[in-house]
Specification:
The protein has 51 residues and is an all-alpha fold. It has two helices and no strands. It starts with 8 loop residues before the first helix and ends with a helix.
Amino acid sequence: MIEIKDIPPSQIHGMARITLEGAKAFFADPENQKRFEAWQKERRVERKETA
């Protein structure tokens, strides 16, 4: 298993940049934004039902 504490900060920053670029590209498509918001709303409803 990979221990986060063992990953050098420079590698963490690189992975964060790559992840951010992917998220920006994904959310640049308005349809993806709509799907995400629908998914998020559904999760909130599920949480309320199980609480």
